[in-house]
Amino acid sequence: MSEWGVALIAAGSAIAGSAVTGWFTRSAGLRQASAARVAGEEQAAAARHAGEQQAEAILATVQQTLESQVRGQQLSIKRDAYVAFLQAAHALAEDRKRDQGALDEALLAEAKRAYQVLWLEGTDNVTAHAQFFMRAIEDSISDPSAGTDEIDRCLRHYVTVAQHHVQEPWTWMRRSRNSWIAGGS
Questions:
Q1: Contact criterion met (CB below 8 Å) for 85 and 114
Q2: In angstroms, rounded to a whole number, what is the distance separating the alpha carbons of residues 1 and 125?
Q3: For the segment 72-131, what is each residue's pLDDT rounded down to a tens digit?
């Protein structure tokens, strides 16, 4: 074989070896690219899932905070209604004690207005005791000779029940204070 033949065989072998090596390198590169794409997709899915969980946790916290604020506002509204009726009822009871005959119509109108607000905002138990007080006032108007003992008793019962509901609303709901504020059971 001549030198040219050896050179051609050597060159052909080199080209064939390069082609085979290139082919295997290309195949390995495609496999690595595919694996990287799959890993990237998995990582993106994991990041998306973690983000969704974090967003859900934040939303739950915000919702609990808002519900807590709403409950606090509701309790404040009830407390204001209880106090408004108590002030009007106390003024009416004192007026009734001072003057067994006539009743101050302005005080009676204020007590009735406060009772209407209480009827809308208060619990059934507190509203019932306020109604007993108003009935005692009406009874004392129809019978001016009647004493004020029943009025005083009804007012004391109203105060006791209202205090119970305002000071410890979570107790009569059989839940802890923190659970009540957070909206848990």
A1: yes
A2: 118
A3: 888 888 889 999 989 999 898 888 877 766 678 888 899 999 999 989 888 888 999 999
Residues contacting 40, CB < 8 A, separation 6+ = none
Could you please report the per-residue DSSP string of the chain? --HHHHHHHHHHHHHHHHHHHHHHHHHHHHHHHHHHHHHHHHHHHHHHHHHHHHHHHHHHHHHHHHHHHHHHHHHHHHHHHHHHHHHHHHHHHHHHHH-SS---HHHHHHHHHHHHHHHHHS-HHHHHHHHHHHHHHHHHHH-TTS-SHHHHHHHHHHHHHHHHHHH-HHHHTTS-HHHHHHT--
Pair 87, 117: CB distance under 8 Å? no
Cα–Cα distance between 39 and 47 in angstroms, integer? 12
Contact 179, 170 (CB under 8 A): yes
Structure token digits, residue 154: 């009804």
Say if residues 130 and 118 touch (Cβ distance below 8 Å). yes
Torsion angles phi and psi, residue 181, rounded to 5: -70, -40
